[in-house]
Amino acid sequence: MTTFQSIKRFFEPTVTCKVKVAGIALQALVWVSYPIVWILTMKAITKVAVDKDYEAFLNIVIWFSIYNVIYFILKYVTRHWWWPTYHPLRRAIHRKYVSWFFTLDNNYVEKIGTGKMISMLEKSIWVWADLIVVTMTNLAYHGTMILFFCYILASMHIILVPILLVVIVGMLYLLSFFNRWTVEMRANKITESREYSRILIRCIMSKYETLANGRIHAEVERLDNQSLRHEAADYRLDYPLALMFNLPIFIVSALRIGLFVVTGYALFHGMLSLEVFVMIFFAFGYLDTTVLQATEVYKNFTRDFAEVRKLWDDFDQAPLIHGYSEGAEFNPNNGSIEVKDLSFSYGDNPIFTDFSLSITGGKKTALVGLSGSGKSTLVKLIAGYLHPTGGSVIVDGQNLSEIKLRDYYSHIGYLTQDPSVFDGTIIENLTYGARSEISEETVKKAIELAQCEFIYEFSDGLETEIGEKGVRLSGGQRQRLAIAKIFIKNPEIIILDEPTSALDSFSEEKINRAFHNLFQGRTVIVIAHRLQTVKEADDIIVLDHGAIVERGSHTALVEKNGVYAKMLELQSGF
């Protein structure tokens, strides 16, 4: 990406929202007015002091006092003028990138890790929005100061103006040269910082597991080790940064000494008035401050821009879900599913090779087999969450590679052993996947069919907050709530991935009654280790290493005395 393309993309969010440029510019001008007025005031005071005009001196002091009052009022009023720009910018950025996140290929998201994704999006969004506003403010401030310094030098000799501009351009070139040197180091530092955040999130989210296994010291040590790697990345970056930001200060100091020699010579030989000399003296005192501020601004900009650039790199290179928004509308029929010559692999690990399967619509099909046999991967491919590397998945005669997945997803109910509930009220969870306005009667019917009467035991009923991941509910309650959501969504195809494996027998019995209500008239694919949940399936498919090794009803497979029968022998209660 060229420098021009980077600048264009950096300011791109300003196009999609109303940027209060006037407010930002006026705020910067209020800030910059103080040093300018102070320098001009000192020049005027010097002149009247030489002329010994006491009345003029008092007038200058009065007007400067009035200006100070006005300045502090304006500074107070304009302090928050950039907020009307910051928040729309942040919204413009999160609209684009959070929407983009949802359409990223699921394999890629799992590879990066949820913790890294959270850190990447959360930090980059506010950094980018803040950086745009700060950059615009500082361009206005420092641009005005440079013009003022040019005016001062022009009052001495016009040739000094291009000299100052050449020095400024030279410093900018040096800063950009050193910045290119540090690009890789900054990217490495950001990577280590995000890894620290990922480990910290993992550590916090695994509290009970850590306590149960006495691994507190190990988790803290893991965090310590990552902190050391982050520290090492910081130290490697510190040396070029020290050179990068001290060199401009050295150049300005040398320039100031040279200018004082020239102006001092001109003053003592009658070629320069005392008031102009005083103005130059105070102006270049501010020049030091301006350069220090500018280099600090540049340092912060390059640091934060590296964060934004990392966001671009990670999202630009990320594969998207194939056909999420493109393709034909999905037209549901009887829920028949056909898998033809399917191939799929995780990296170099092949899961399916030329795999074929037909599932009858409106029937309950069970997938069983040992861990790693491909059950969960297969249902994700059927659900359209993963895209095959070869072959096709056809639902109701429509190839998933040719239809709009966003539309197809609305006809799929997907439930795992980790119920899809979120931090919010029960009613918000129930109606989240609804395709249209839901009546109170529909909600009550879903609660009844899903065995969710426990809802009415809460004092707030449907308005009860269930906490993060439904922490205020038991495992069985969360699962039944998730089933009620599917009733309200009313999909034609239901996929269950080991939905009762983490439940006790009492909860499982209630869940199975809810499932019995849910399955009526729908195509159901269920994965289960507990074969009790699949005995009544119309069709049972036994998978092993991505291949079908047995298929039939429960009775037929038992009589065959093969893999399925041996799995039954290992489980009690049959």
What do you see in this structure?
By secondary structure, the chain is an alpha/beta fold. Among the domains are: 14-185 and 244-316, ABC transporter type 1, transmembrane domain (ABC transporter transmembrane region fold), CATH 1.20.1560; 323-411 and 525-574, P-loop containing nucleotide triphosphate hydrolases (Rossmann fold, 3-Layer(aba) Sandwich), CATH 3.40.50. Helices cover 62% and strands 11% of the residues. It is built from 18 helices and 10 strands. The protein has a 6-stranded mixed sheet with strand order 6-7-8-3-9-10, sandwiched between helices. Strands 2-1-4-5 form a 4-stranded antiparallel sheet, with helices on one face. Strand 9 and strand 10 form a beta hairpin. The chain is elongated and about 115 Å long. The mean pLDDT is 82.
CATH class category label of the domain at 14-185 and 244-316: Mainly Alpha
Strand content range: 5-15%
Helix content estimate = 55-70%
Q: Structural class given helices, strands, pairing?
A: alpha/beta
Number of helices: 18
Q: Could you give me the name of the CATH homologous superfamily of the domain at 14-185 and 244-316?
A: ABC transporter type 1, transmembrane domain
Q: Segments where pLDDT lies below 50 for 5+ residues?
A: none
Strand arrangement, major sheet: 6-7-8-3-9-10
Overall pLDDT, averaged?
A: 82
Question: What CATH architecture of the domain at 14-185 and 244-316 do you see?
Answer: Up-down Bundle
Major sheet size, sense and barrel closure: 6 strands, mixed
From the 3D structure, determine the CATH topology of the domain at 14-185 and 244-316.
Answer: ABC transporter transmembrane region fold
- Supply Rg: 34 Å
Shape estimate: elongated
Elements, N to C (H/E): HHHHHHHHHHEEEHEEHEHHHEHEEEHH
Span of the ends, CA to CA: 64 Å
